[in-house]
Amino acid sequence: MADAEFLIDEVSGYLKPEDVEHIRAAIEFSRIAHQGQTRQSGDPYVTHPIAVARILTPLHLDAQSIIAALLHDVVEDTEITTEQIAEQFGKPVAELVGGLSKLEKIHFETREDAQAENFRKMLLAMARDVRVILIKLADRLHNMRTLDSMRQDKCERIARETMEIYAPIANRLGLNEIYLELQDLSFKHLHPNRYTVLAKALKVARGNRREVVGKILDAIRGQLEKKQVQAEVTGREKNIYSIYKKMQLKSLAFSEVLDIYGFRVLVEDTNACYLALGALHALYKPIPGKIKDYIAIPKSNGYQSLHSTLFGPFGTPIEVQIRTREMHKIADAGVASHWLYKNGHATISELHKKTHQWLQELLESLNDSRTSAEFMEHLKVDLFPDAVYIFTPKGKILSLPRGATAVDFAYSVHTDIGNRCIAVKINHELVPLRSELKNGDRVEIITAAHAKPNPAWLTYVTTNKARSHIRHFLKTMQSGESAQLGERLLGQALTALGFKSAEISEACWNKLLRDTGVKTRQEILADIGLGRRLNMVVARQLACNGDAAPGDIVSNPVITILGTEGMAVQFATCCRPIPGDPIIGVIKSGQGLVVHTHDCPLLRKGHSGQWLDVVWDKHITRTFAVNLKLLVANQRGVLAKVAAAIADAESNIENVSFANEGEYTALHFTLEVNNRLHLATIMRSLRMIPEVIRIFRVQSAV
C-alpha cells in the first residue's frame, strides 16, 4: 500500500519513533478489520481511513488523532468494539473513535431525527475533545473528493449537508483550506453544470490575466521595498464557489467579476501590517468602505488580517490581505494550530478558550430544542454568524451575528443581565429592546432587580444563547407557577372528596410517585396546573392510597382567581374577561387554567378540557385588557378627544386601529382597566363626547 508508506513518511517528520510504530500497527489493525470490504469506487476500504489520516498530517496532529483516524470506521462497520481498541491503543483513542461513530441500534422515525441525533452526539464528543471534529472534517473531505461513484440523489444530500453544516464548522474553527475545498466540492455536486462552466471560464481567465497579475505583484513588491517594509507577497486565486456567490449576490456575469485574484502580504509584526497598508494606499487608491481591520477586532475563529480593496491598473479592483506570519499560521490552521505550532502563543490559547466557550453555548442551546427540525435550524443559524462588532460601555468589543438585537447583546454579556434587562441605550439614546445592532454601536443595558424575561423576546432574538436562556427561565417560572396552581386545584378536588390536604401522608405520596413513575411531588402538581393530569383523578389516587375514610363529599368546589398566578392562569383573548364578569375556567393540556366569560361564544361551540368553577378575588390590583369599538362622526380632532377622555378616566391605550363604516369611522381600542366598574366609568366619559355615536365592548373574536 503506497498510501500507507506515504503516511508513515509524513508522520516520521514530526512524531517520535515509538509513535510512528503505533501508527504502523494501527494501519495493519485497520487493514485486517476492513479486509474484504470495498468502497463504492471498488477500491479496498482501508484506502479511505489512510487518506483521512493523511489529510491530518499537515496539521501535525498527535499520534492518538492519527490512530483514531485510521480506526474511525471499524466500530461502525466491523465486529471490532471500542473495548478492543482501548485494550490495543489506549482509552483516549477509543474515546475519539467512539465520538466519531454514528448512533447504532436505535430506531428513528425519520432520517432527520437520526441526522439530528448523530450531530448532537458528535457535538458532545467535540466539546470534550476538539480532535473529534478535526478527524470528522478530514473524513468528510475525503468522502467529498470521492463522491462521484455514488448515485445522484445521495451525492446531493451529502453535498447539501456538507455545505450547510461541515463547511461552516470548518470555517468557525479557522480551518481555511478545508473550508474552501468543502465549499467547492459541495458546489460541484449541487450544481454540476454551473461548476463546470465556471471552472472552464476561470482556466481561460487565468491565462489571459497572468501578465496583469505579474505586473501587480511586481508593483506591490517594489512599493514595499521602497518604503522599507520587509514582506513576502503572493497572488492567490479565489475559489470557484466564492466567485459564484459574488456573481449571484451582485447579479454579475463572469466577465464582470474582475477581482478573481487576491494578493497576500506577509510581514514581521503588527506595526509592519499598518505600514504596508499605508504604502499600498499610496500606490493604488483604496475603494471607500472596503477597508476591514480584523487585527484590532479579530473574527470569532481567531482570524486576523487587514483587508483592503484597491483601484489597480486598467481599473481592475485588487483585494489585498496583510498579516503577520503568526496570523497566517492561525488563518490557515485555526484551532489546529495548537498542534501545528506548540509555542504556547497567547493568541492560540485564546482561540482554544473561545472555541470551547462557543461549543458549550452551542450545546446548551441545542439541548433545549424540542424537535429535530428545531435542532438543525439552531445549528445552522449558529454556524452562519456574519458578525457585527459591538462596544460595551467600558470599551470591550463583543461579536454578535448580523441581525442581533439589544436582548441578544444583554445575554452575551451575562445571563443575569439578559434576564433582568428592561431598557437599552444605543449610542447614548434610549431605544426599544428589539432594536437591531449595527457595527460599532455602543450599547448600555439598563436592568431592574425584579425584572424577568418577556415571552415576546423569543419572536426577535437571533442568538441561540439568548433563546435558550429565555426558554429555560420561562419554563422554570411556568413550572413553579403551575405547581402552585396545581396545589390549589388538588386541594379543591380533595375537599370535594371529603379530605384535607394535610391528611394525605408521605407514604400516600410516595406510593403515587412509584405508581406514576414521576420523580417529585412538584412535577405532579405542575402537571395538574398545566392540565396534563386531572386533579380529581390524582385526588382519588391519593385518597385510595390512604387509610382515612372520606368525609362528606362537598359539591361545587370553587377556585379563586387572584390575578397574580402568572403564566399558570391565562385570560382568554377571545372574550377578554375582567373582574366583575361572570367567569368559568377550562383546564387545557399544556396551557394550564384558561379563564373565559361564562357566555363566551367559543365555549358554546364546544371545547376540549376540564371545566372548573372559578370566581374573582375581591382584592385584585392588576389591570386587564379589554376591547372597545366606538362609532364616531368623521370629524377633525375626534381621536384626540377620545384619547383625552380615556386618559382622564385613568386608563391606558394598548392599541388603536381605524376602519371606515359608511358615513362613520369605527375606532377599535384595546384598553387597560382594573375591573368592570372602571370600564363603566370609561364608557360613561366617552358617551359624553358629542361625536361618539355608539360604544360596544367587543367580547369575542368570533
Automatic annotation (TrEMBL):
Keywords: Transferase. Transmembrane segments: none annotated. Its EC number is 2.7.6.5. The keyword S-adenosyl-L-methionine does not apply. Residues 627-700 form the ACT domain. One of its GO terms (cellular component) is plasma membrane. Residues 45-144 form the HD domain. It is an enzyme of class 2 (transferase). GO terms for molecular function: GTP diphosphokinase activity; guanosine-3',5'-bis(diphosphate) 3'-diphosphatase activity. In eubacteria ppGpp (guanosine 3'-diphosphate 5'-diphosphate) is a mediator of the stringent response that coordinates a variety of cellular activities in response to changes in nutritional abundance. This is (P)ppGpp synthetase I, SpoT/RelA. The lineage of its organism: Bacteria, Pseudomonadati, Pseudomonadota, Betaproteobacteria, Nitrosomonadales.
